[in-house]
């Protein structure tokens, strides 16, 4: 994990906030909890905000230290407790509090489902457990309060300098563009990214391209999960049985994509840490006029023993 921090710090002018500094950080159970919350902690640490994982009333929470000594608590619903795994709740609640000022209590974001059927539906509730809307809401409020040490521009990489943006392929209607049937601009963009990966000259370049896919907030997998989740909500609008069945299938797809992002969350750093093989030394070339050596005579076979 120390190597991960060094890579992140070297790659950007404003260093990512450090990991917590206590003994549990080196324990496997703590590292697993940290991994499950990386889609929350990574973008916030990229903004210069130190994060930690603690246990709340009934579930693990993310505690974020702010420059004015106040702090954020980002948690799943605490009462009643949820059976969902850490880091993947039904919704997120983000509050700002202060240890010495009990009057300071502010809800920045709340996408947790309500148990009260008569309660007014909050706008955030449609996002459920998605991380990106949560981070955007925190960005907006902390910027208003002047408590954001390092604002991160949209799609800015928290680990490495982003690779050159991939231009969209030309439309079918673009003069000179080949007519090859329907245009799949997003598939073409990903195909171009794959071509650039194949042509990468170093593992660091390959890691930068992996980052475009695996970044937990703005990467392709995160956005693909958002896409399938939105498609599921659109299917529900039909208010038909098949629409609800389709929405469940799409929600499952979104969950599987997010799970894949969790499994591969360190692939970028592992790729960057790979050491390329040194090229084999080239043998000196044979002089142009070197006399050819006669072939060595093969040793004669030993005589067979006969009875």
Describe this structure in words.
By secondary structure, this protein is α+β, with helices and mostly antiparallel strands. The protein has nine helices and five strands. It has a five-stranded antiparallel β-sheet with strand order 1-2-3-4-5, with helices on one face. A hairpin with a 4-residue loop joins β1 and β2 (about 60-65). α5 (about 185-200) packs antiparallel against α6 and α6 runs antiparallel to α9.
Tell me about the largest β-sheet. Answer: 5 strands, antiparallel
Number of helices: 9
Secondary structure category: alpha+beta
Distance between the termini: 73 Å
Give the amount of beta strand, in percent: 5-15%
Low-pLDDT stretches: 2-12, 155-180, 285-302
Elements, N to C (H/E) = HHHEEEEEHHHHHH
Strand order across the largest sheet: 1-2-3-4-5
Q: Quick one: overall form?
A: globular
Q: What's the total number of strands? A: 5
From the alpha carbons, calculate the radius of gyration and give it in angstroms: 27 Å
- Name the helicity range: 25-40%
- Oligomeric assembly: single chain
Mean pLDDT: 77
Provide tags for this entry.
five-stranded antiparallel β-sheet; alpha+beta; 307 residues; 38% helix
Task: Provide a short characterization of the protein structure.
By secondary structure, the protein is of the alpha+beta class. The protein is 38% helix and 9% strand. It starts with a helix and ends in a 34-residue tail after the last helix.
Indicate the topology.
Elements: H1 2-11, H2 28-36, H3 38-46, E1 51-55, E2 60-65, E3 71-75, E4 93-97, E5 105-110, H4 131-145, H5 185-198, H6 203-214, H7 220-236, H8 241-263, H9 267-273
Antiparallel strand pairs: 1-2, 2-3, 3-4, 4-5
């Amino acid at each position: 994990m120390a190597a991960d921090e060094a890579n992140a710090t070297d790659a950007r002018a404003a260093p990512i906030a450090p990991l917590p500094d206590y003994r549990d950080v080196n324990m496997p159970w703590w590292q697993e909890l940290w991994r499950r919350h990386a889609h929350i902690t990574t973008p916030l640490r990229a903004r210069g905000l130190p994060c930690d994982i603690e246990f709340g009333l009934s579930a693990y929470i993310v505690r974020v230290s702010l420059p004015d000594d106040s702090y954020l608590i980002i948690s799943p619903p605490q009462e009643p407790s949820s059976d969902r795994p850490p880091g993947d709740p039904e919704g997120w609640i983000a509050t700002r509090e202060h240890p010495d000022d009990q009057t300071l209590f502010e809800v920045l974001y709340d996408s947790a489902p309500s148990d009260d059927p008569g309660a007014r539906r909050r706008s955030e509730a449609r996002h459920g457990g998605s991380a990106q809307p949560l981070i955007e809401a925190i960005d907006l409020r902390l910027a208003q309060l002047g408590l954001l040490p390092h604002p991160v521009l949209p799609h800015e990489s928290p680990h490495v300098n982003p690779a050159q943006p991939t231009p969209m392929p030309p439309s079918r209607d673009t003069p000179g563009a080949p007519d090859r049937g329907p245009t799949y601009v997003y598939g073409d963009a990903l195909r171009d990214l794959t071509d650039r990966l194949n042509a990468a000259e170093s593992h660091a370049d390959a890691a930068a391209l992996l980052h475009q896919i695996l970044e937990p907030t703005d990467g392709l997998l995160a956005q693909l999960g958002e896409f399938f989740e939105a498609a599921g909500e659109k299917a529900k609008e039909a208010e038909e049985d098949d629409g609800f069945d389709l929405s469940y299938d799409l929600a499952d797809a979104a969950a599987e994509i997010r799970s894949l992002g969790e499994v591969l969350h360190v692939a970028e750093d592992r790729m960057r840490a790979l050491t390329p093989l040194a090229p084999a030394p080239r043998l000196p070339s044979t002089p142009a006029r070197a006399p050819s050596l006669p072939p060595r005579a093969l040793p004669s076979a030993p005589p067979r023993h006969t009875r």
